[in-house]
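User: Show me a protein chain along with its predicted structure.
Assistant: Here is one chain, sequence first, then structure tokens.
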Amino acid sequence: MTQANIDPAPRSYPHFVSLLRRGHFDPGTVAGADQAGVAAWLLSGAADENDLLELFQSFVWRLVAAGLPLDRASLHVGTLHPQLFGYAWNWNREDRFCDEVKVDETALKTDAYRLNPLFRVIEFGERFRARLHDRDSLRGSPLLAELAGQGISEYVAVPLPAGGGFHNAMSVATKQAGGFSEKQAGELARCVQLFGLHVQRHISDRVSRNVVHTYLGAGAGDQVLRGAIKRGSGAQIDAVIWASDLRGFTDLADRLSDTDMLAVLNAYFDRMAGSVMAEGGEVLKFIGDGLLAVFPFSQFESERAAAAAGLNAAQNALGALDRLNSDGTDLAHIANWRPLRSGIALHRGKVFFGNVGAPERLDFTVIGRAVNAASRVESLSKSLGRPLLITQAVADLLDHVLDDLGRHHLRGLSEPIGIFAPAELSAEALSPAPGPRPSGSE
């Protein structure tokens, strides 16, 4: 029932709202539903629906089939995520679409949110009901004025049950002359109260996914949610392995305050990890100033595609770091931090991807000789004067023109390994950050 091809027209959203999916429901599948049938579905069949988009539009169309005069409806939920305020689902009877959108944190500071009746519903748990029959009833709200212009006669927004500090709400609107009757309003209230229990279940699942994806990565997080939580559980994968390191980290940490150093690291990792994820890679670890990531072959069309993604990510990351050094806007409040330089290594190998640790404190990561080799190749970037080094195993999968830097012995490997580097990346990108270099620093 959900369209794979997203086409937001003619709908538009503010800059802090991003369209994720668009659903289209066939009302004929719920034709003949009545109030008792809606309640019975909420107490039984609705529990089998695992997609909140499908659940919401099915619920709304059942209400319409039961005779309730709904023309618009929306569902709003909060979530635990470092960048998102929450999600929303917007249904319109006229175009029959239901959009799933995400709302970022910047929405909280906008008039579009604070002048919206939903602000007090979400923030303070208040109920809101307004018949839009004259200018005074619009209460200075741009949203209510827009709805009145579309022929909406009444708008209602109510809080839904929510656990912890999360905020859930649902709104309904009608074009029926005079708005909802008191009987219709009572029927809506009863059904929405039951529906809210399903919403809380779905949001708890979504929060769990957000947390494990944020802290473990999407691939590892999905495995944990599927039950791979026992020590030693996991699987061997073949992948391009990324190992990178921030140059002069010890020197920077000595010169900057802890708060400033954290801001520098966040700006640095935003470029590094962001480039990895943009190319389909999986970020596994932040180890001090180091980053470990993989491009699993199983996630790409071919081994060559995975290798190309790794190379693109590395070159994009170094380019983004150069732009940060040149512009510096993100770190304008901090002195003496630039230039930031990084060394990156790309290696291919089979690694074990799974749970490691103590019975009560596990970590989901990759281990193996290939991981160790990638780390040791990265350390060569300092002596070879190249910010990006690629081993023979990855170079064999690339069409890119590379400089042959010869074969090098690595600790733990019996045979020397061929090392290559893109010709366009020079030693300049590895020059150390300015300032005194205390004894023992990198």
